[in-house]
Amino acid sequence: MIVAFSVTPLGVGEDVGEYVADAVRVVRESGLPNRTDAMFTSVEGEWDEVMDVVKRAVAAVEARAPRVSLVLKADIRPGVEDGLTSKVDTVERHLAQPDG
To answer: Thiamine-binding protein domain: which residues (predicted)?
Structure first.
């Protein structure tokens, strides 16, 4: 499964990058395949291990912020591996084809 999630600290002002870095650090240290962009961090693995990483990422932010917002989207497809890469590769392959 792939989970894309965003953890946002509330009540800490507008500059939240330091708090978000705490969450991303947890994800990267998990050893699971992951990718971070401007809006979400995606992590791939089995249900329990992915949800554990999300929970620990939220806890890392919660340790320093009075309130935390979590947005989560999951793609649950048993048997699919390397979805983080293969989904993007499929789109890139279609983009590389000439029109018409």
So the answer is: 3-92
Task: Quote the mean pLDDT of the chain.
Answer: 93
Instruction: Identify the CA nearest to 4 among candidates 100, 94, 90, 87.
Output: 87
As for how many domains the chain has, the answer is: 1
State how far the alpha carbon of 38 is from the alpha carbons of 4, 17, 48, 61, 70, in Å: 12, 11, 26, 17, 15
d(CA 70, CA 54): 9
C-alpha to C-alpha distance for 80 and 19, rounded to whole angstroms: 32
Q: What pTM did the predictor assign? A: 0.88
pLDDT in tens, 4-39: 999 999 999 999 999 999 999 999 999 999 999 999
Range of the domain at 57: 2-96
Please count the other Cβ atoms lying within 10 Å of the Cβ belonging to residue 48: 8
50 confidence band (pLDDT: 50, 70, 90): very high
